[in-house]
Design a protein that fits this description.
Blueprint lengths: L2 H9 L27 E2 L8 H24 L10 H9 L1 H8 L3 H9 L14 H9 L3 H19 L21 H12 L13 E4 L2 E3 L3 H15 L5 E5 L5 H8 L4 E6 L1 H15 L4 E3 L9 E5 L12 E5 L7 H14 L3 E6 L4 E4 L2 E2 L3 H7 L2 E8 L6 E8 L1
Parallel strand pairs: 4-5, 4-8, 5-7, 6-7, 8-9
Antiparallel strand pairs: 1-2, 2-3, 9-13, 10-11, 12-13
């Protein structure tokens, strides 16, 4: 039997996706899956007064960020290459048009469905991903396999399930557990929920009053690691990048008292909307507001260098390799200068970064050149090909 013929029997138990090629396992596996194990796509909530107030606030924040860039940051010093520059041109056009037109009503409706819009592409959602999930017979199957695998991997990582060993007997038993069973085990071990509220067009597997979306397990694991590294939750975390705000949401739900996100201005709007809806607008501070005392800070990338801001841990997951090298090096140099511990969970594949002859980066290589020393380095539990590292200044 050839290796190719062996692929399906080997991968059928679904044991850690990424350790094998599961993309061949699609909807053929799922016709018999209980409906409770499938994705749900809740209808969007009707707009309320808070939606409009948030849209007005976000527009004002964006205009201040844009003015600051035009006045104080030279074009050559702005991020203008890499994966996210490609995303800007391919996926963010609708949002830029709304901002340019100062269309508060349009921005309100866009943000209410933000997880299903172009601005969420690459952070767990996005218009393309949503359309594939709804319209493709394979889109949902692939995602369900990956989500089940990551839930199992998270449960094993935190000790909620034993770590399976193919050398010692049955392998793949955990795959028979439902999402409900897995999440119950995880939440019991962590002592906190990991599902999300049904807002902003988020979709996922329905569990009780919340949804298990594609990034929920990653966020839960990373916050678990932050807790272990810091020891106390009376600390301040800075996240470079931030997705749609999922890690911040989980960290604050776990009891962390200060959390700051630093990202591109347009992505700040997605994060700001999500975190304002989940924790209340009075708990979120954004650019140009007199709100530095608020527990959640959603700020543009250049605010990371603001000397008035202090952090006990800097965290980045799945984004530093995708940004321009100059900006990545600047971040790492600032981490070293301030002597802040750094948690990095990233890939080192160096694939093309959205432009011919421009490749993604290796955090490990850049960190070494920036005077940071990897205290720990090991494979990331939830995704094959990703490495988890903690860095200290040399």
């Amino acid at each position: 039997m050839s290796l190719g013929e062996l692929k399906l029997p080997i991968t059928h138990p679904l044991r850690n996706v990424g350790r094998s090629d599961v993309w061949h396992l699609t909807s053929n596996y799922f016709p018999d899956v209980d409906e409770s194990e499938r994705f749900v796509y809740p209808p969007l909530n009707d707009p309320d007064p808070l939606d409009r107030a948030l849209a007005e606030r976000l527009l004002g924040v964006y205009l201040r960020m844009d003015e600051h860039q035009q006045r104080h940051i030279e074009p050559q010093d702005r991020p203008a290459s890499g994966v996210w520059e490609m995303f800007k041109h391919e996926y963010h056009g609708e949002l830029y048009r709304l901002l340019h037109d100062r269309d508060v009503d349009g921005l309100m409706h866009y943000m209410r469905a933000g997880f299903r819009k172009g601005i969420a592409q690459g952070v767990g959602g996005g218009e393309n991903t949503y359309n594939q999930m709804v319209n493709s017979p394979h889109g949902e199957g692939n995602r369900l396999i990956l989500m089940k695998d990551r839930a199992i991997s998270l449960a094993m990582a935190i000790g909620a399930l034993p770590y399976e060993n193919p050398e010692q007997g049955i392998y793949g038993e955990h795959c028979g557990k439902s999402f409900r069973e897995l999440v119950d085990l995880i939440e019991a071990r962590l002592g906190i929920e990991i599902v999300r509220p049904s807002i902003m067009g988020i979709y996922g597997v329905a569990l009780g009053n919340g949804l298990l979306d594609f990034k929920a397990t990653d966020d839960a694991y990373c916050v678990h690691r932050m807790s272990a590294l810091l020891g106390s939750r009376e600390t301040s975390i800075a996240e470079i990048g931030g997705g749609f705000g999922g890690s911040a949401f989980q960290a604050l739900r776990c009891g962390f008292r200060r959390y700051a996100i630093f990202d591109l201005p347009t992505v700040n709007l997605l994060q700001g909307y999500f975190l304002c809806r989940t924790f209340g607008p009075d708990n979120v501070g954004m650019f140009g507001e007199d709100a530095d005392d608020r527990i959640i800070q959603v700020q543009p990338w250049w605010e990371f260098y603001n000397e008035k801001r202090s952090y006990d841990l800097v965290y980045n997951r799945d984004s530093l390799p995708e940004i321009p090298e100059r900006q990545a090096v600047d971040y790492l140099n600032e981490i070293r200068r301030r002597e802040i511990p750094f948690l990095s969970i990233n890939q080192e594949g160096k694939a093309l970064a959205g432009q011919p002859d421009l490749h993604q980066l290796s955090v490990n290589e850049l960190a070494s050149n920036s005077g940071l020393s990897a205290r720990t380095r090991f494979p990331y539990w939830l995704r094959r090909g990703y490495v988890e590292e903690t860095y200290d200044p040399v």
